[in-house]
Specification:
It is a single chain. With about 325 residues, this protein is mainly α. It is about 65% helix and about 0% strand. It has a two-stranded antiparallel sheet with strand order 1-2. A hairpin with a 5-residue loop joins strand 1 and strand 2.
Length: about 325
């Protein structure tokens, strides 16, 4: 090592004090350091810019979601007058709701419809897996056909299926008679009306679920499936052990929105069953009770109590689903 390099290494820094015997040079804090350059002010660094961008969305949520929820809750403690206006009645609407003989049947019908609607999830997973097969001829046509009911008006869907279910001239009964099976009046028979409506709900929502599952399937790495092929796994084994676990986040999302949508079902029941149908008590849902109280009987306070009860039920079931998803949903 040269003398010049040695002197550079042992020379004290500017402003250093003499060391103690056997010690090192002491350098004051900050001595020998370069002054930090002044930071330039960044445009758009103010939090007011964030408020500017999220403000419209927050205002829309407050106006169209938060305020109606608060307003409905306050309205549930009132009773509407015959000529408009309302009077505060406290918990009278909730006490009446607890004693309503139609509430139990409506909750049971809604629960049955929701359970049947969840059957559409595994059907959508299987169909999406088949549509995701490489080399499938006409894959785009199949996707279009499955998605058509999603963009069709619910009223049109209900009217078409009402004709298909007709007990006198419906195609379904004509097909059953051709093979020697007696048909029935599907929408007026209390034993079959709710199941017939639920099947239409599954068919109408199948396209949305398939699109969501197709997006999830395309996110599964090909290397994982290729490794399973090298290990000798068959199609069923790969579907149950690889596809379904890796698709579990999408399945969880679809299950949440399916439960929420099924608990709010109204249009299919209203259009396919009708107010004079003898099967109405066996198909009437909790939203139908809300419609009956608020728009037929003009009892807005009682209707608001029904709506808030439905909100509590949806919130509770959603919380339960989020708690249970930790046991079966795999995010890695």
């Amino acid at each position: 090592m040269s003398v010049t390099k040695l002197s550079e290494r042992t020379a004290p820094a500017p402003g250093a004090t003499l060391p103690a015997p056997g010690g090192r040079w002491r350098t004051p804090q900050g001595a020998g350091r370069r002054a930090a350059p002044a930071r330039r002010g960044r445009p758009y660094a103010s939090p007011w810019w964030a408020l500017l961008f999220i403000g419209p969305t927050a205002a829309g949520l407050a106006v169209f979601y938060l305020w109606p929820t608060v307003r409905t809750f306050l309205l549930s403690f009132t009773k509407s007058g015959p000529f408009g206006g309302s009077n505060f009645v406290g918990l009278e609407n909730y006490a009446r709701l607890a004693q309503d003989p139609d509430l139990g049947g409506a909750l049971l019908n809604t629960a049955i419809y929701t359970v049947i609607a969840l059957i559409g999830i595994p059907i959508a997973v299987i169909v999406a897996t088949l549509l995701n097969t490489r080399g499938l001829a006409g894959r785009g046509v199949y996707r279009l056909l499955y998605f058509l009911p999603v963009v069709t008006m619910p009223a049109a869907i209900a009217l078409v299926w009402r004709m298909l279910y007709n007990g006198d001239y419906g195609i379904l009964n004509e097909t059953l008679r051709a093979v020697g099976i007696p048909g029935t009046s599907w929408l007026t028979n209390p034993a079959t009306a709710l199941y017939a409506v639920a099947l239409v709900g599954i068919w109408a929502g199948l396209g949305t679920n398939i699109v969501i599952f197709l997006a999830g399937l395309q996110g599964i790495p090909d290397t994982v499936l290729e490794a399973a092929d090298l290990d000798g796994a068959g199609p069923v084994r790969k579907f149950l052990s690889i596809t379904v676990p890796l698709l579990s986040p999408s399945i969880f999302f679809v299950s949440v929105i399916s439960v929420i949508g099924s608990l709010q079902v109204f249009d299919l029941v209203y259009l396919m069953i009708g107010r004079t149908n003898p099967a109405l008590p066996d198909t009437r849902t909790i939203v139908y009770l809300f419609y009956q109280a608020g728009f037929v009987d003009n009892d807005r306070g009682y209707a608001a109590a029904i709506a808030f009860l439905l909100l509590v039920i949806i919130l509770g079931l959603t919380v339960v689903q989020f708690r249970l998803q930790k046991k079966w949903v795999h995010y890695e």
